[in-house]
Amino acid sequence: MILYAWFSKSGFQEPLLFVEKHGGHMSKRETYEEKTLKLLEPIAQSNGVEIYDVEYVEEAGEWYLRAYIDKEGGVTIDDCEAVSRALSDALDRDEFIDDAYYLEVSSPGLGRQLKKDKHFEKSIGEEVELKTYKPIDKVKEFEGVLKSFDAETVTLDINGKDVSFNRKDIAKINLKLDF
């Protein structure tokens, strides 16, 4: 995974290299992610990359705004740096995030998480690792080939047998890393 980041809102500009809706209104996290996505769209287009995902998360008491970018053949550190600088400038102009946060721009990595339909569509036929919230027949972790998906289910081929999972029961699904 290639990652380029720097702290925003404090003036610190040195790069750091790091190898559900509720009640019918958007949460702070969803609002920040949506606004960031809108700022990022023209930046991604002008830099020849596509937006894989945007997330705003708290980890160990620190806030992180992460933008994952991708392109055919993979992104480079230069792609991440260019997008990070442009996005940082746009975020500083709009100033809609009240918290201090770290801005990180990176590739989604080889073991990328599948969250959106476009991620599933691109990954049909690929090996994946799926984790459920609750055990199914005493098992919470499954590996198989992504066969299909729809709004309600994800189907894997597990050892030659089609197994369907309700999307609401899936905690996480990632492309499988083989070394």
Description of the structure:
The chain is of the alpha+beta class and 179 residues long. The protein has helices at residues 28-46, 77-94, 117-122; strands spanning 3-8, 16-17, 50-59, 62-70, 101-106, 127-136, 139-149, 153-158, 161-166, 170-175. It has 3 helices and 10 strands. Strands 2-1-5-4-3 form a 5-stranded mixed β-sheet. Strands 9-8-7-6-10 form a 5-stranded antiparallel β-sheet. The protein is globular.
Number of strands: 10
**CATH architecture grouping of the largest domain:** 2-Layer Sandwich
End-to-end C-alpha gap: 15 Å
Radius of gyration: 18 Å
What is the helical fraction, as a range of percent?
Answer: 10-25%
**What is CATH's topology name of the largest domain?**
GMP Synthetase, Chain A, domain 3
Strand order of the largest sheet: 2-1-5-4-3
CATH superfamily of the largest domain: RimP-like superfamily, N-terminal
Poorly predicted runs are 1-23
Mean pLDDT across the residues is: 87
Q: How many helices in DSSP terms?
A: 3
Shape estimate = globular
Number of domains: 2
Order of helices and strands: EEHEEHEHEEEEE
CATH class label of the largest domain: Alpha Beta
Q: Summarize the main sheet.
A: 5 strands, mixed
Structural class: alpha+beta
Strand content is 35-45%
Annotation keywords:
179 residues; GMP Synthetase, Chain A, domain 3; SH3 type barrels; 5-stranded mixed beta sheet; 5-stranded antiparallel beta sheet; 3 helices
